[in-house]
Structure formats: structure tokens, C-alpha cells
Amino acid sequence: MKAGVSKTFNLLGLNFQGDLGPLTTYTSKKGRRVWFLKTTPSGPSSDWQKIQRDKFRALALAWMNLTQEQRQAWHTAAKRASLRITGYNLWAYLQLTGDRAAIETVERQTGERLLA
Q1: Are 100 and 94 in contact (CB under 8 A)?
Q2: Same domain, 28 and 82
Q3: What one-character-per-residue DSSP string does 86-116 give?
Q4: How far, in Å, are 13, 65, 78, 87, 99 from residue 108 at the CA level?
């Protein structure tokens, strides 16, 4: 897609990523918008892909089972720590890695209680 179109989207305040009609877009590490034609999978999902998708579905359900206050604490901590991720992403990181030390650091830096 032409650079002018991307600048127009930014000027309009639109900041999105993912699929948009026949195109897919994301922001590169250099902060540039990357556009390309959407592709379809070349074959059926592998067992590993299915397991990974199920794992992330289970994560999303577990996140929704947290109280509103618990979810808000994770969002607030991510924001106060100036992380470029959401509270959900920070929480999911803990669930996937078990890295309590990293979350304890975020707790100390932000004053938010995240670990029970």
C-alpha cells in the first residue's frame, strides 16, 4: 500500500493491525506500518498449532474469570511500568512462563499487587 494511505489513516487517528479486507497490516519494530496481501494457510492445522490455539483459548477464558478489579490491576501495572503491552499480555506472560520474579519486579515498580 502507498505510504500516503498509511499516513492518512494515522492522520484520521486510526491505528489498527491485522486483517482489513484483502490486506494484512502490522507495525514493524521501526514503527513503520507494513501492508501485504492476506494469505490463506497452505494446508490443515498441525497438531502443535491446535494445541497452541487451545492453550490461548484457555488463557482467555481464565482471564475472563478474574474479577474486574484483578484485571484492572494488571492493566494499571502494565501502564505504570510503561510496558508496551496490555495487562492481559502481562498476565498471559506469567501464565505461560511462570516467571514470578519478573512480575514481582513490576509489582515493586508500580505498587500494584498482582500475585496472590
Answers
A1: yes
A2: no
A3: -HHHHHHHHHHH--HHHHHHHHHHH------
A4: 34, 25, 12, 16, 15
Q: Quick one: 27 and 66 in the same domain?
A: no
pLDDT per residue, tens digit, the chain (116 aa), is 445 555 555 556 666 678 888 888 888 888 788 888 988 888 999 999 999 999 999 999 999 999 999 999 999 999 999 998 999 999 999 999 999 999 999 999 999 999 97
pTM value? 0.67
| C-alpha span between 84 and 77 (Å, rounded) | 11
Is residue 79 a part of any domain in this protein? Answer: yes
Domain shared by 26 and 66, yes or no: no
Is the residue at 53 inside a domain? yes
Q: Which of 84, 97, 92 is nearest to 66 (CA)?
A: 92
Q: What residues have CB less than 8 Å from 85, skipping those under 6 apart?
A: 78, 93
